[in-house]
Amino acid sequence: MGKTGWAWTWFGFLLALDIAIPWFVLTHVEKMSGAFLFWTIWVVVAIISAFVIFLKWKEARQ
Amino acid sequence: MSTTFWVWFGIAIYIAVGLAIAMMARRQLGAGVSEFFLANRRVGGFVSALTYSATTYSAFMMIGLAGLTYINGVGALGFELTYLCGMFMMVFFLPRFWLVGRKYGYISPMELLSDRYQSRWVGATAAILALVFLVPYGAVQLMGIGYLMNGVSQGAIPVVAGIIIAVLCAIAWSNIAGMRSVAWTDAFQALIMIATSAAVLGVVVAALGGFGSFFAKLESAAPGLLTVPTAKGAWSINMFIGLALPWLFFLISNPQVSQRLFIPKSVTAMKQMLGGFLVFGFIYTLISVLWGFSTTLLVPGLENGDLATPTLLALPIIPMGLAIIVMIGITAAAISTIDSILLTLSSVWARDIHRGLINPKVSEEGELRVGQWVIPIMAIIAFVFAWWAAGKTGLAFMIAPLSSAASAGLLMAVPTIFGAFFWKRATASGAMVSCIVGAIVVLLFQITGWKPLGWWPGTWGFIVCVILFIGVSLATKPPREKAEEFIGYLKEKLAEGKFI
Hints:
- Chain A has helices at 3-25, 35-54.
- Chain A is mainly alpha-helical.
- Chain A has one domain.
- Chain B is 78% helix and 0% strand.
């Protein structure tokens, strides 16, 4: 699989976690350290992933 | 002097500064459609990031999302962060939009679709979709401003007065210098918006005894709001998907943001735009949600969540000056979204409807004139919708669900956009049938309130839309030559720029 394929797969994995963890793992944790903390860390991982990819971009000839 | 006086004074200062910035932008305004609608594709990274942020984040966040958190709890955070996670797709779409925008000179995202599918009807269909569904989204911003001014002035300023002020500002700023005035005012407003909201959150958290005490109080007073689904039954998986799915693809489905993918002046500016926006979005989302939670503790028992922020700002713990500055910050954010929507809709009408269907031989000046006329017309339609919806209560008339419902309609263009960039076999018929039938399904389900299997209108519409797009495309003839050229060009340039 090429880089684009890996990036789409990683994105799909992040989306699966978006539902799986809060609804099936943390559903009874009534604390800020539950779904609130999960979603905060989860999106930081997504943002860092995007940075890792786009920081490699360079100017292309038009 | 009374609070009402200072609110009016603050609004007057805000309008004066906004007009001054817009007039400064006008000095740099050149001739032509590309100049007016895209600032000639020469916007720097800093302004690109801020205009993208201010266009995306608006009254929806500090009023709608805070209100949704107030009523339904932590699921609101997941819903909004799902959008931010969806911005990961910018690593695919930003360079693609930007490259073909420069190569083929597209003015609107719909023009891109018309050219790629070799059918002006595809662009026109997507344009009509935008015209229909962006009106409620624009109206939502107006409602937010109305609620806010009414709340901060403690009822002295009627909701409708706030709506009228917003309409007039949006018309002026989008007409004065097009994208240039919109982007510059956006940048200024985005900075005010994040600085002031963070300041007020700081004041509120301090009043609650600091973050540790705030979180402890929240866990003790409203533990049911910290899980999904909540104790009251909100945030079922179906509700979450129904609201979050349109949000996930917001970056390509909403033309007022996807049009901005054409404007950065260089790859460096693109990187600054994306990086800046991701950081801005993360901070602003957390502020909005924590704001909503703090309101749960400070003013419990409100029936309409959209009134949570205005009520919070009217509390004695918030210094009046700070409340007014925040009110202006949120007002500015809302107006920056409306003027962007108006500008995009005017470009879409001028390029994809007027030039695309009605008068293909229209001059560039004629096209620009048509676009400038469309701005006030669309503003008046949004005003009427906002006036009608502002008095209503219930989840369907809250700012966040109403925004998401509007995006559910725009979601129907997503398979067509994916197909344009990634699927050579995609056809114009597949694009049109999927957009039209998908939009009808969404409208029908939204109007009747019908949710088979508990799935929301956007979810059903999207499923129908994807199936039709693939099925009809496979059954019809694709524009092979254009697809090869378009995708082939991208393949070459993507490799050159180390894009993926």
